[in-house]
Amino acid sequence: MPAILATNYPVLLATNYKVFPIWLVIGHFANILFMLFMVRSGLEILSAFPKFYLSDDCPPGKEWLRLTRRVYSAEAAHPWSSLDEEESWSPVIALPGRKNLGLGRHWHFMSLQFWVANGAAYIAMLFATGWWRTMVPTSWSIFPDSVRDVGYYLMFKIPPKIPGMPFDHVQMLSYFVVVFILAPFQVLSGAAMSPSIAGRFPWYTRLFGGRQRARSLHFLGMCAFVVFIVVHTAMVIINDLPNLWTVMVLGHVESAPYHGQTEALIIGFLGLFGVVVVSVVATWFSRRYPRRTQRLLGIMVNPFEGALSRVLASRQRYRWSDISPYFRVNGYPPPSDDYAELVAGDFADYRLEVGGLVERPMALSLDELRALGEESYIAKHNCIQGWSAIAQWGGVPLANLMAAVGVQPEARHVAFYAFDDKAVTEGEGRSGYFYGTIPMYLADKPQTILAMEMNGEPLPIEHGAPVRLRIESQLGFKMVKWIRAIEFVADVDAIGDGQGGWREDQQFYSNAAGI
Ligand SMILES: Nc1nc2c(c(=O)[nH]1)N[C@H]1C(S)=C(S)[C@@H](COP(=O)(O)O)O[C@H]1N2
Ligand SMILES: [Mo]
């Protein structure tokens, strides 16, 4: 197959771009599909917190860009929860649409794996075949030439092509920037938002100016992609649509101008129609069968998130001066009478029940719990919706409690049961008390603690008094507040709907939360 084996630039010159290798045709087409999924699922993620900040404190009302009319301020008369900030975006633009952050993330991280694999294969083939010469400028003159080309376009003229290539200098430069700079940048800026990476390597996230700037840049990168796609398509249309379409679809154009055009038109449109159908089916399926979608996508996404969570232990040490003036709250405090009584008695009657697969089940008062040891640090909290805030946390390492109760070897997960009944605090078709589980490998990390103190004060009610979990390598939803009881279990299947947590059960979040 000479088309596949087209080995170098001279071959390309000789054929005068009438032959594209098949890997290029397939890679380009697959990219259309994966990019569509990346952008749509990215918009779903964005809809959960459609505002952008310059500082990791995310001061409410101080966003540099807000894609919603509603403003929440730090001085609001009514208490609000960050979940109230979610917007419902249409399934036409967002995948799957209508407030489904959990599945949006599943789609994003699954598509990511395909997109990266496809991109890596594409780049490898570019270099293996010599086709890199069509995309990598080898002379600085590309810049003045590109400026000149833009001048042509501004005067409604078509600039001359690079000899032997189907495009001009500014097009080549834009392909280079998109493939070799913008695409890797999107992956790197995305990684800077991962709580596991930010917890283990805070310097990495700082390279991007912090999590919120990384998030802003990631969004602007997406915008740049969309602009590129629009302009790129326009350029192809302006320059030589029939021939370029044909060679991009069939891999070749025969010498007579327009030969093969009909086949290319049919195949190309069928391909694009296929992309639309796949996208519509994915949306419909996700909305119709969210649990199955969570499970199916989880096959690819969970090992990926799990590996990051397992390997990277948080080593954050921020300074007191880094502490955020305002720390959002997520989840309304327990409205029940038993909790109100505990609060009224200053938690003197509170007992933390610890049981399950342990040698010595216990019911610990706060003083008994405190006696198990003290750890404190200043860390950045990363909510799954997108906001962050820094605080100091003090409490007992979970590992100390585990040693005290004697965890049996069969125990594989730790379950934390909370006082807040979501059917009451959230309504909206929600049910059951909040709970969460973590795998054993997160339980004995140094920055996994039962916190009783925040910024040097006893834990405030809204942040989880009297005891909450902190796991600094994970997203916020794993850190159960208002803990009533802890149970060591072999399996999470029998708890709640069996997905390993209230948000996993009801919002289809993934159980590992390292990204
Ligand atoms: N019991 C309980 N714990 C909870 C929640 C909740 O709704 N109920 N929300 C979680 C989420 S999504 C986040 S981001 C953090 C928020 O902690 P904060 O309110 O102290 O900021 O708590 C987590 N723990
Ligand atoms: Mo959250």
Give structural notes.
With about 525 residues, the protein is an alpha+beta fold. It folds into 2 domains: about 5-70 and about 90-305, no CATH class; about 315-505, Oxidoreductase, molybdopterin-binding domain (Sulfite Oxidase, Chain A, domain 2). It is built from 17 helices and 12 strands. The strands form 3 sheets. Strands 4-3-12-7-8 form a 5-stranded mixed beta sheet. Strands 5, 6, 9, 10 and 11 form a 5-stranded antiparallel beta sheet that branches. The longest helix is centred in the middle third of the chain and has 40 residues, at about 210-250. The model is unreliable at about 1-15 (pLDDT under 50). The protein binds the ligand Nc1nc2c(c(=O)[nH]1)N[C@H]1C(S)=C(S)[C@@H](COP(=O)(O)O)O[C@H]1N2 and molybdenum atom. Ligand MTE binds near residues 383, 418, 481 and 482. The site of molybdenum atom (MO) has 6 residues, from loops.
Name the helicity range. Answer: 40-55%
Q: What's the number of domains?
A: 2
Series of secondary-structure elements, N-terminal to C-terminal: HHHEEHHHHHHHHHEEHEEHEHEHEEEEH
Regarding quaternary structure, what we see is single chain
Number of helices: 17
Biggest sheet features: 5 strands, mixed
- CA gyration radius, whole angstroms: 27 Å
The secondary structure category is alpha+beta
The beta-strand count equals: 12
Poorly predicted residue ranges: 1-15
Shape: elongated
| Beta-strand residue fraction | 5-15%
Mean pLDDT: 94
Task: Spell out the blueprint of helices and strands.
Layout: H1 2-5, H2 9-15, H3 22-47, E1 51-52, E2 65-66, H4 101-129, H5 142-154, H6 169-191, H7 195-200, H8 202-207, H9 211-250, H10 261-288, H11 290-311, H12 337-344, E3 352-356, E4 362-364, H13 366-370, E5 375-382, E6 388-397, H14 398-405, E7 413-421, H15 422-425, E8 433-439, H16 440-443, E9 448-454, E10 457-458, E11 468-471, E12 483-489, H17 502-507
Parallel strand pairs: 3-12
Antiparallel strand pairs: 1-2, 3-4, 5-6, 6-9, 7-8, 7-12, 9-10, 9-11
Bound molecules: the ligand Nc1nc2c(c(=O)[nH]1)N[C@H]1C(S)=C(S)[C@@H](COP(=O)(O)O)O[C@H]1N2 and molybdenum atom (MO).
